[in-house]
Each structure stands twice: as C-alpha cells, then as structure tokens.
Design goal:
169 residues, mainly alpha
Length: 169
Amino acid sequence: MNRRPPPDPGSVAIGFMLAPLSGSLTLALGLDAYDLFGHSSNSGTGMLLISALTPLIVVACMMVAVVKTLVVGVPVYLLLLSRSRIRLPTSLLFGAFVAAAPWAALANWDRDTAIPPMLTFLGVMAACGGVGGLVFWLCLAAAPWAAAHQDAQRRPSQGARGSRASISS
C-alpha cells in the first residue's frame, strides 16, 4: 500500500495556532459589521460599545476557540489524517464542526422559543469555524510550496552554464 507522507509538523502547528485566531477575528469583525450595518438603532451607543469591546471580544473568543481546538480539533484532525487526505471541503466542514459542536452539546434545547436564536448562534459559530478550517487548510496547502521554495533557494545556482544564452556560438 502506497502511503502518503504526513503533513509537515511545523505547518500543522501554525495551522492550529492561526485557525482559532482567524475564527475569533471573524466573529469580532462580524459583530462590528452587524452593529454598524445590520440593524438600525436610534442611538449610536451600541456601535460605540461593540467597537470599544472588540479587543476584549477577540481575546475571549480566542481563549474559547483554543480550548475547543485542543479538545475537539486535535482529535478530529488525527482521525481525519488516519482516514484520508486533508482537503478543502473536509477542512471547512470539520472547522465548522469544531466551532459549533461544543455549543450545540451545551445548549438548552428544552424550550421552543430558544431554538431559532440558538440555531442562528450555531450558524454564526459554524461560519467562523469554517473560516478557521480554511486558514488551517491554507497552512497545510502552503507547506509544500514553502518547502519547494526553500529548496530552490538552498540549491547553488547553475549560472550561465545551463542557460540558453550560453548556447550561442
């Protein structure tokens, strides 16, 4: 059986660091955009409050995202790595799963009135997780290009010996 080599551990580590950050930034910027464009209010205090709290929102979301990544994301990555290649659709899907599944498990599903807002919240979490999955996949996809680029820089240049310009007589 022809096994493919595992992804570069450095790019996997970078992916696991950048994915929660990108999802957190997506949520914070989405809240800012929603507050700015999404609803009309008579006073601008809501916009000022959300904008002032954006750094705090990013830090809080980042802490939650890192925990979810370690508890859910790493086992899902190891399971996915043992089963198949990591491709963009699966990375997006599992990024959304890692972001939304813990919230769905902790949700109070007893009330009928709470289900539509909870589904909206889970959708937002899944979208932010999808962005994190995209960033994770980009880190893994960029690794072969970066390795090839580093190898090309390490090789000594051939100079004019192998070029077409030196062929003319």
